[in-house]
Amino acid sequence: MPSNAPSPPAAVLCGLAGWVPPRVVTNEELADRLDTDDAWIRTRTGILRRHVIEPGQATSDLAVEAGRRALRSAGVDSVDAVIVTTTTPDRPCPATAPAVAARLGLVGAAAFDVGAVCTGFVYGLATAAGLITSGVAGRVLLIGADTYSTIVDPLDRANAIIFGDGAGAVVLRAGRVDEPGAVGRFDLGSDGTHEDLITVAAGGSRQRAGGDEVPPRDRHFAMRGNEVYRHAVTRMAESARTVLRTAGWKIDDIDRFVPHQANLRILHAVADDLGLPPERCVANVDSVGNTGAASIPLALADAVADQVVRPGDRLLLTAFGGGLTWGSCLLTWPELPLPAHPYDRGEETAP
Ligand code: UT7
């Protein structure tokens, strides 16, 4: 391209926020009601605590809080589209995004949900970028929000220890590919032959909700953790390599790796496989657990608030989740107002 040609359009990240509900569940509290202990949870997962909603709260309540803060961070009060990515929508029908948009004063904006389980945020970023670069939207609010406490059986010790509730949000605007914040290269993939590794069996068209014929276990989240673990490490490393190769970046070009916060051992295994020193791997799974589609923006909000991620840093975002799905994205971190720490709530209260 001649040097005086305008650079191609891109979606540029211009706002960021995270939100977790105030209630903290420690490993000790779980050990009081489950056959587990703090040492097992710490060593197998790196998780020390997680946050959960109160009865009566729902995913949209967290999404609205994160969305409001992200709009403030971007300094805007309107967008053309609101995307909510979640595995725990408020209801099977309608999508959660229109209600979230309405509560944010965004009636009229396009609003829809994206489902890719724990890869949802990366899929949502690609969807938002597509809306912007195709000219359909000038500005998009993307929110990853999940309340796994509503689908995990509280007596299931394998899963109850891992998941936490939370939301993270970003605002994207139309800009140029050479600007900091431009979300450039993506790698997205899936392998539905392993759909049974992570499921909520009932509640969809295959096995309908309600009625005594639905066994209680089919109403809850189920995961074959050990197999998922192996897929997670392999797929995340492969996806990261693919996006780096497509962009012509080397692993040494990455200042910070921001992976889906599945389990600290998984994050370190992926970083190790990629040849990234562990200190370049952003991790907040110790404080929030695995928050599904919220985990990458929550980790980002945490790291930016702590100035672990700084303007000009080159980031690799990589996620993996049920489906199976996986995805990666590269970007250079832009200058943004420092977000509030997602769990330093100060005087702020949930809705
Ligand atoms: O976010 C989407 C993707 N999800 C993930 O990436 C999660 C991936 N998987 C994992 O993080 C890990 O597999 C787990 C943390 C879920 C489990 O750790 P693990 O090291 O794979 O343990 P395991 O499932 O192989 O279980 C080992 C033992 C079993 O006992 P036996 O059969 O060896 O006697 C389990 O019953 O640990 C037992 N166990 C527990 N013990 C104490 C399972 N959960 C617990 C528990 N406390 N909470």
Provide a descriptive summary of the structure in words.
It contains eleven helices and 13 strands. It is α/β, with parallel strands linked by helices and 351 residues long. The strands form four sheets. Strands 1-7-6-4-5 form a five-stranded mixed β-sheet, with helices on both faces. A four-stranded mixed β-sheet has the order 8-13-12-11, sandwiched between helices. Strands 2-3 form a two-stranded antiparallel ribbon. Helix 4 links the parallel strand 4 and strand 5. The protein is globular. The relative contact order is 0.20. The structure holds oxa(dethia)-CoA.
Give a quick set of tags describing it.
disordered C terminus, 2 domains, globular, 5-stranded mixed β-sheet, Peroxisomal Thiolase, Chain A, domain 1, 23% strand, binds oxa(dethia)-CoA
Secondary structure layout:
Blueprint: E1 9-19, E2 24-26, H1 27-33, H2 38-45, E3 49-51, H3 59-74, E4 81-85, H4 97-103, E5 110-114, H5 120-133, E6 139-147, H6 157-160, E7 165-176, E8 186-190, E9 198-200, H7 216-219, E10 221-223, H8 225-247, E11 256-259, H9 264-274, H10 285-288, H11 295-305, E12 314-321, E13 325-332
Parallel strand pairs: 4-5, 4-6, 11-12
Antiparallel strand pairs: 1-7, 2-3, 6-7, 8-13, 9-10, 12-13
Helix pairs in contact: 3-4, 8-9
The structure holds oxa(dethia)-CoA (UT7).
Quick gist of this model?
The chain has 11 helices and 13 strands. It has helices at residues 27-33, 38-45, 59-74, 97-103, 120-133, 157-160, 216-219, 225-247, 264-274, 285-288, 295-305; strands at 9-19, 24-26, 49-51, 81-85, 110-114, 139-147, 165-176, 186-190, 198-200, 221-223, 256-259, 314-321, 325-332. Residues 345-351 have low confidence and may be disordered.
